[in-house]
Amino acid sequence: MRRTNIISGVVLAVFGLVMLFAVIPWQIDPGPPGYMSPRLMPNLMMSFITLLSVLLVVTNMRATPTASETDVEPPISRAELVAFVWMTALFAVSIGLYLWVSPLLSAVVLVVGALLMLGERRSWMIVALPTALLLLLWLLFYKVLGTRIV
After folding, report:
1. Predicted model pTM
2. Is the pLDDT reported for residue 87 higher than 70?
3. Domain residue ranges in the chain
């Protein structure tokens, strides 16, 4: 677990630094003079994430390994990698459905597929959760805010 925490902390720290110094400056305009910059909240959140990930790395580097951690085992198991690939494929299919078919179908496939991948087998939950989420989103965007999603 210690090695996994170090790897995930380093990956998150690199992600945070890339977001702070490349993505946020390139994608978000600085804003007009005299106003609060639209970059403020993204910069604050990414700074916080980067700080926490560095803290995760430092605390796990300083911790003494336990007896169970002395064995050399891979930090990420094969089952986790397979789950990652399947979840990535689900997101790719969902994005394709969003672009070429319908946002509603995309959302249903994403939520139902994720529930099935995570082991949910109660049919009422598989039907109720996407229905409730999509109905609430529809109410929020179309009725309360008066805007359109697409």
Report:
1. 0.57
2. yes
3. 2-69, 78-144
